[in-house]
Amino acid sequence: MIKSSVSNCPVPTEQQPLNEYEELKTSWLFRDSTLNWRKYITKIVWIWSLSWLVAGPVAAASFPPHKYIAHFMLCGAAGASVGVVLALVRLYLGWFYVRDRLYSPTVFYEESGWYDGQTWTKPLEILDRDRLIVTYGIKPILRRLQFTSAGLAGLFLIGTIVWRLL
What we know:
It comes from Komarekiella delphini-convector SJRDD-AB1. The chain has 166 residues and is mainly alpha-helical. It has one domain (2-6, 18-110, 121-165). Helix content is 75%, strand content 6%. The chain has six helices and two strands. The chain has helices spanning 2-7, 17-26, 28-32, 37-62, 69-103, 124-165; strands at 106-110, 117-121. It has a two-stranded antiparallel sheet with strand order 1-2. It is elongated. It starts with a helix and ends with a helix.
């Protein structure tokens, strides 16, 4: 029954919300947010570590490590966290966009260009399927990203307190 409704769907294949979801799940950055907690945190730490390649020299120029090791470490860690923040924002916005497309009862799509957009109303069985995907597939990822962002904000707060105590 779902097959017939999907076959009547006028939305181009690459713009169908389910296909956008499947594509997002397999893309290199976005699939990392679907991993178990240990692997996910490992990927976040990798991003943070690679960000040190830029943040470290900038922090060293501001606070020479041989004189101000604590300030250098805090400044470098905060600077490297910018890479993590950018990655989290990109992940959140991507998943949020697909969540909205899946959850919506209508789908806006473009037939041949930006100037001729159309709207398709999903049949009930497709809407139910898409909302189940949102509930069990995307909402846990968005919660994980929110939790990670809150944890990062907490680390920034701790770093700020330590900085003030130095």
